[in-house]
Design goal:
The structure is a homodimer of 119-residue chains. With 119 residues, chain A is mainly α. Chain A has 2 domains: 79 residues, Winged helix-like DNA-binding domain superfamily/Winged helix DNA-binding domain (Arc Repressor Mutant, subunit A, Orthogonal Bundle); 32 residues, no CATH class. Chain A is 63% helix and 12% strand. The first copy, chain A, starts with a helix and ends with a helix. The C terminus of chain A is likely disordered. At the A-B interface, helix 1, helix 2, helix 5 and helix 6 of A face helix 1, helix 2, helix 5 and helix 6 of B. The structure holds a DNA duplex (30 and 30 nucleotides).
DNA sequence: GCATCACTTAGCTCTTGCGCTAAGTATTGC
DNA sequence: GCAATACTTAGCGCAAGAGCTAAGTGATGC
């Protein structure tokens, strides 16, 4: 069960990093950092059809980096700060490996990744 | 020229986050955190054909997260710690926006992303 | 109550990502 | 010098990502 926990963690990271790999999505996150906004407000700066833009919003929501709520005909997007902790955690684990501080959890993470984590 | 600098930074982030979005590649980085290794050593834990694995190595090298050097018939891979700073920088900029500390650079980054950064 | 607005769904393209096999090249070891 | 080792190149197949248009749905405003 700790293994399935690691797998969940890994798939979560897949989604988060994938979400962050697109400049449109990073820009949306930057904008939402300043506070909630509606889809059309968010879409305005981009030279992109709305359905295309919506896919980015769905991707961000799927990865947990934002959540949205529809009231009337307007959907409002809010950043999900907690989700960024997963990235920070991965970065610290990585740094810990460099520093040779391979305590039990970090060893576990490294080994799990090397063995069963792929695909 | 500061604009083209931001564009470079953005494309760099695209590559880095994309590289980190794959569990095989994260596992390779975790392994390399403990020290340099050859391609075949790195490939061993994975149930994957060597050319497939090589693509991951090339991707990592292309994103700057590792560099490699061939001596004789063996190619040795080394982690490039500096490159992780770009991720940290992005995370801090993001956090800074949450905290309302939108000083000049961060405002610039946010606006550049919202306007011209996409695609 | 009819038009407008703010999405939403459906379905199409094109490119890229991630895996494979087969065959090639360049070192190294006996 | 011949075989084995350690990649490397070439090329294929399938799935997913990122864009588009066209048409649909459900609230809001006059």
């Amino acid at each position: 069960m700790i293994l399935s926990l690691m797998e969940q963690y890994s798939e979560q990271l897949n989604g988060i990093f994938q979400a962050l790999a697109d400049p449109t999505r990073r820009a949306v996150l930057a904008r939402l950092g300043a506070g909630p906004a509606s889809i059309s407000d968010l879409a305005k700066p981009f030279d992109m059809a709305l359905p295309s833009f919506m896919k980015h919003i769905h991707f961000l929501e799927g990865s947990g980096l934002i959540h949205t709520r529809k009231q009337g005909r307007v959907r409002t997007c809010v950043i999900e700060k907690k989700q960024f902790a997963a990235v920070e955690a991965w970065l610290s684990a990585q740094r810990a490996l460099w520093e040779g501080r391979t305590d039990r959890l970090e060893q576990f993470v490294a080994k799990a990744q090397a063995k069963g984590d792929s695909q």
